[in-house]
Design a protein that fits this description.
single chain; alpha+beta; 5 helices; 17% helix; 37% strand
């Protein structure tokens, strides 16, 4: 059985907006695809007419090593394995209630160590990136540092060959000189569902500012353009380091704010740090 009332949060991480249900102790609580789509819709009254990039459910942990389990649903009502900015928001909720500055959060992608600093920013250890073609996954063997594939695009020569990285979900990253040169929404929508990506992919567009700073726009699979994408920022830095475009510690400018990514040389883990914002909290009673 599930509770007749539960806490509901509206939060964002660098502009990435989430509807978050705290379903701990609510063993039978489920959301239908229709509920997910309705909450994420731009005209959603529950979300203040602004919509959400993802719907998140906080559940009791499955592993003895974690404090909570995070379930992630995209705007189209499909479950996904990872979301970096949602991880930071949900970790913040737990650390606030537990009065602690570190915790382990669990997703379908694995266990994630999270820390809260004195500036109310949360750092998540996103683990090691997957770089092998089977782990992305790709439909066939290919060098993931630079995919030698001709996408059917008018301005292919401008965007060139992308990189592929998996940060709990698949990413395809293009490096560009200027965002005004391309129709990144059109490109993102087409490449997301390209046959080379059997599980579809998030499409990132990166402009390198200098060796320690990049600008990023991401077309998220099942969502579209978002103000921020945590796993996308991690993947972009990994791809840029592999191509020797940047160093391993990089500030990532996204439309919703700024994230700091550190691809540690020794551990090879990717650390993501950024702000969280609690927009609204209320108790939902008998909603479902």
């Amino acid at each position: 059985m599930y509770r007749s009332a539960m806490d509901f949060y509206i939060m964002n991480g660098a502009g990435n907006r989430f509807a978050i249900f705290d379903a701990r102790g609510a063993l039978g609580f489920q959301v239908s695809r229709e509920v997910v789509i309705n909450f994420c819709a731009q005209n959603s009254t529950e979300m203040g007419k602004k919509g959400a990039d993802q719907l998140i459910i906080i559940r009791d942990p499955k592993s003895k090593k974690s404090k909570i389990f995070m379930e992630i649903w995209n705007q189209k009502g499909f479950e996904v394995n990872a979301c970096g900015n949602a991880t930071r928001c949900v970790a913040w909720i737990y650390m606030q209630e537990a009065s602690c500055s570190s915790m382990v959060l669990e997703t379908k992608a694995g266990l994630l160590c999270c820390k809260l600093d004195s500036n109310n920013k949360v750092t998540v250890d996103m683990g090691k990136p997957e770089l092998e073609w089977k782990k992305i996954p790709l439909a066939k063997e290919m060098n993931t540092e630079s995919l030698k594939i001709k996408f059917d695009l008018d301005n292919y020569k401008i965007i060139g060959s992308p990189s592929a990285v998996n940060m709990g979900n698949p990413h395809c990253i293009f490096f560009i000189k200027d965002f005004s040169d391309i129709d990144y929404k059109k490109i993102g929508a087409r490449i997301e569902i390209h046959s080379i990506f059997p599980e579809q992919a998030n499409i990132g567009f990166v402009k390198v500012i200098n060796e320690n700073q990049i600008q990023l726009k991401v077309w998220e699979r099942g969502v579209g353009m978002t103000l921020a994408c945590g796993t996308g920022a991690c993947a972009a830095v990994v791809a840029a380091v592999r191509q020797k475009r940047v160093k391993n510690k990089v500030r990532v400018q996204v439309d919703g704010g700024e994230l700091f990514i550190d691809w540690e040389k020794n551990s090879q883990h990717v650390l993501m740090t950024g702000p969280v914002e609690l927009e609204h909290k209320k108790v939902l009673k008998n909603y479902f």
